[in-house]
Amino acid sequence: MKTRIISGVVYFVFLAAILVLNIPIVDTIVVVSISLLGVYEYIKAFKSAGYNPISWIGYLGCLTLFSMGGFVNNADKILCLRIALPVIIIAVFMYAILTNLKFNIIDIMITCFSLVLIPFMFSFIKLILMMENGRLLIWFVLLGAFASDIMAYFIGSKFGKKKLCPDISPKKTVEGSIAGIIGVVISYIILTIIANVYFELNLNLLVIIISAIVIAIVGQFGDLTASAIKRFCKIKDFGSIMPGHGGILDRLDSVMFVAPVVYILFKVYFGL
What we know:
- The chain is mainly α.
- It has one domain.
- The chain has nine helices and two strands; from the N terminus they run H-H-H-H-H-H-E-E-H-H-H.
- The chain has a two-stranded antiparallel ribbon with strand order 1-2.
- It is globular and about 60 Å long.
């Protein structure tokens, strides 16, 4: 428990420092690095289960995120992603055929899924940071993921009785899940008050509360998705880079699902 808390605090301070720096290319490097580590853990997990995904394709997908750095015009950054993803997926099948099907169709699907699950989903972190007031809005991602994780962990371990998904993640409980949702709602209310009072964003509190419930549930499904992959590959953790937490995908599994929803909320609904 102590190791987990200390590691979490160090990780949180690191993220906060990156946000305070407000240097676009640093943001990009961090997102790319997280994606590369995530793909490495993902590939390693499936290889331990006897599969043979095409590693370099996954890493190439992460490197396309550099197009979102400071050296590409804002108008072209999203276009770069739209072009990169289908081109790389086509390249996967071309490579498989040119190597006389050294990689079977399951290996190819695992490879393609890595592109969508990891670099594509993490790219929404950078997209949010590129928005006006992005430094504030990114906290809706962090709190949407971590407030749920923290509340679910402490309340679930203390009061949890009814199992949530015992076949996927035996330790998760319904009580912990509900506590996680409440945690996100409370944190979003506080964050919205700050946004409206100090940043004059005029966010509708009722919409934010409803969104908080949806985002908390989506984040928990991100956690369960990672757990399902680990159970399929018969591993306990994706890695050990974060003592007490595991790997990057163990810690940021819910962030992968929360970031796109937060982006849609503020870009599409609120038009920010």
